[in-house]
Amino acid sequence: MIIFAIVSKRLRTPIYRTYIDTGLGELRTGRRWVRSLPVSFHVMLPMERIPFVLPDVGLREISGHLYIENDFLVIELVDALVGEFDKEKKTIEIEPAALQLLELDTGILKDKLVVRTYSSEFLKHIPGDYTGDVTFSCWRNYRDRLRRLVLQMQRLMELA
Questions:
Q1: DSSP reduced 3-state for 56
Q2: Which runs of E-coded beta strand occur in 1-145?
Q3: In sequence order, what are the beta bridge partners of 19?
Q4: Phi, psi of 90 (to 5 degrees)
Q5: Backbone φ/ψ region at 24: left (φ over 0), alpha (ψ -120 to 50), beta
Q6: Lowest mean pLDDT among 37-46, 87-96, 104-113
Q7: 103 pLDDT above the threshold of 90
């Protein structure tokens, strides 16, 4: 199955449709055949940003967003002193080939996303002592987005 996003020119919003690859160089959607689209590509749904919180480091509070952009796992960090002062913003992009493990642990109020990389080079930019893996805490109402992020990244890890 190939997921393809079509952007409506009138509404300027994405319309998502699922196309089935027939293996004959054609795509089928519902009752219509689409012959003009190539079948050798894969397009993922655009990711919504998922807010997270990391454990505090001293008086510094660390929060941010997770999402997928251009087949990279993007981690946007905001490191702030007591939540408001001396804010530092960082963006870390991790390619799928560098990821060793993505695991989602669900809880009653918060879910935890465990990210493990082959090299600690990516994790040294995250404030705190993270040698092997990082655990991002996200609220339960973002569970569906987290599951979709994990599934998309696992597909990209298989392709890499």
A1: strand
A2: 2-7, 14-21, 27-29, 32-34, 50-57, 60-69, 72-81, 85-94, 99-105, 110-117, 133-139
A3: 2
A4: -135, 150
A5: alpha
A6: 37-46
A7: yes
- Contact predicate 106/98, CB 8 Å: no
| Cβ density class 127-144: b for 16+ within 10 Å, e for less | beebeeebebbbeeebbe
Q: Confirm if 5 and 43 have CB atoms less than 8 A apart.
A: yes
Question: How many other CB atoms are there within 10 angstroms of residue 117's CB atom?
Answer: 19
Q: Each residue of 19-35: pLDDT tens digit?
A: 444 444 444 444 444 44
User: Which tokens is 55 given?
Assistant: 């454990």
Structure tokens at 144: 């569906």
The single-letter code of the amino acid at 40 is: S
Q: Which two tokens stand for residue 74?
A: 């993007």
Q: Could you tell me if 105 and 115 are in contact, meaning their C-beta atoms sit under 8 angstroms apart?
A: no
Calculate mean pLDDT across residues 129-158.
90
Q: Which residues pair with 103 in a beta bridge?
A: 114
- Those residues whose C-beta lies under 8 Å from the C-beta of residue 60, and which sit 6 or more positions away, are 79, 80, 81, 127
Backbone angles phi, psi at 141, to 5 degrees: -70, -5
